[in-house]
Automatic annotation (TrEMBL):
Organism name: Hydra vulgaris
Pfam families recorded: Peptidase_M13, Peptidase_M13_N
GO molecular function list: metal ion binding; metalloendopeptidase activity
Signal peptide: 1-23
Cofactor(s) needed by this chain: Zn(2+)
Matches recorded under InterPro entries: MetalloPept_cat_dom_sf (IPR024079), Peptidase_M13 (IPR000718), Peptidase_M13_C (IPR018497), Peptidase_M13_dom_2 (IPR042089), Peptidase_M13_N (IPR008753)
Keyword terms of this UniProt record: Hydrolase, Metal-binding, Metalloprotease, Protease, Signal, Zinc
Protein name: Endothelin-converting enzyme 2
Superkingdom of this protein's organism: Eukaryota
Coiled-coil regions listed in the entry: none
One CC-aspect GO term: plasma membrane
Ranges where the Peptidase M13 C-terminal domain occurs: 504-712
Amino acid sequence: MSSTMHFVTHLIFILSMLLLVSSDYSTLVSEYKNSTCYEPYCEKVAKRILDSLDKTVDPCENFYQYACGGWIEKHHIPKNKEEYSAIVELSEEVDKALKQILPNITSGDSETIKKVKNFYKSCIDTAKINSLGAKPIQKFLKKIGSWNVNAEWDANKWNFLETLRQLHREYPAEIFFTVDVDVDPKNRTQNIITIDQAKLSLPQISYFTNRPALDVLVEYATRIAALTEGLKDPKDDENLYRSIRKKMRKVVLFEMKLAKISVPKQAKRYARTSIDRLEKAIPEFPWLKHLESVLTPRTITPDDHIVVLSNDYLADLVKEINETEPSVLSNYMAWRMVKDMVPFLSEDFTNAYNKFRSELTGSTIIKSREDICYKYTDEILGPLMGALFIRNKFSPEDKSEVEEMMHLIIKAFERNAETVDWISQQTIKSVKEKAEAAVIKVGYPDYLYNETQFKKRYEEIEIQPNTFFDNVASIDKFSNRRTFKKLDNPVDPHQWVSVPHMANAFYVVTKNEIVIPAGILQPPFFYGEPIPRSISYGAIGHVLGHELTHGFDTLGRRFNKQGELIQKRTKWSEMSIKKFENRTKCLLKQFNRYKVGDKLHIDGKNTLGENIADGGGVKMAYMAYKTWVEEHGEEYVLPYLNKTNMQLFFIGYAQKECHRSTAKAIEDAIKDDVHAPSMFRIIGTLSNSEHFAKAFNCKANATMNPAEKCEVW
């Protein structure tokens, strides 16, 4: 045999063996996909799921208790909290990861990354902060004309309008009302001036009808004002302290009036108007001059459009201002600024705050300085913290996988729209166009991985490692400048409504935009390869479908595919609107029947939008997973659970909602939260799902498989 023939013979043999091995490998993979995975990573996830279950409960009677009973038994509410949940647990994991990265500046850090680490370092330096005492806040108050707890204050030299303009221009000040620049709800490509009511000194409006809470606020405000004037011990000048208390009591009484005219969040309405029309509606305040000053050097005209979110509040506010003496206005404005700056001052101030918080809420937990500084760094430099997270703790492959999942869910929504029996052909077209046009943002904005763009965005921020208060003030000014600059430009399509490391998800109705930050793309919401996708489709898949469905709930349907508010008519047919409303009534009545204890009923109307989104979300995620299986084949299952992947889908959906609450937290949530308590979100949603009943073989008329089911989408 020639050497050439010998070589060819060997080559044929080798190729044959390779084909055989390849064939055997494909068979092995195919068999493995239809079997049980006993690899360590599969066993770890299976144990996590198993530990959360309560297998003594029939899943067809109470699926929430079945899926979460073990989790509830093993997790306790922290002493300083009123609730604890799977998503809070995930947030803590994110925080833990960042806390390990934040304190250490390395040679590989860019100048921008060093800024966030130096900010944290300046916060940790309590020796420097304490040595400055009240000097930083005294210096700050001089810039705004001080306040009249100071003997130097002169009513003749103080100008209310100029002071308010200065504060709104230079700081994100929550005083009387806020001036912001946001997306125009009528034209999502443009930004527009937005005016809203400001926050108050207490966390909820209801506190202002609570006499003990008001007394606590008076004492706190008095203590902070005295410290600002250098009076550490009231006994050092009892007359001055009494004088300050008298003045701060007037401030609190004034804020009580503001609380009475404040509009609850759910009652706010978009009112798009012009500055000229606002001036005619509320002529007692110079709106044009105020906005010209705040937004300088931009040219503002009477014809410019603005959005007002609480018209009645502004009208009532101006009346209250005009009926209040200047000294009280001065003290209130100074107090609101000082109150927001207290956390960045010496321990005399922060100790006063901790005492106030304890008396107001009952919480006696004092966080470590490291935890406090982490919190402030996260709140103030969130995007930079997000950059730290994604560069160290997040995989771009996971981003791609979730984007594929979102694509399948959108396609599922479009297919579903063609099959529901209440929707007209005209409406189907509109719904599909809007779903297809949704802007999807997964993981993080791309500029965080582009060093040139990253540096340019934050080059104006000046951070020094030993000037904490000044660093905060510098960032506040930078934030205001950046916000107002948006008025000069079209909407930045790369702008995110959240930071990348946040464990949450959002639907932005004014942009038709779904935002899924990297922080939520971790267990129990998301498991990357090689864990069966059934769990992730049930968990994060539901979240994706939930946010998409918000575009077609009672509020979302009123906005078009660009996220613009449609004033007169929607593109839905009258018949479709009527049938949609009838279906929502079924859901409303269903949730109204749920109650906690004997008297506390869920508010079906207040939670309607979220309940619609939950039902649509789980259905679209299920359909998308079925499509994925059709394209890729059946997956292997996890060990020890004796569960199909369709059952794991619903377990994944429920276990991300595991939650423990105190009775008070549940009561507060039922009053104020647009979400139903977790138990009823799971039971209410899945009892409307034929897919769930089939997966768990629930008998007819079981609690989780009632004859009457409420389905909108």
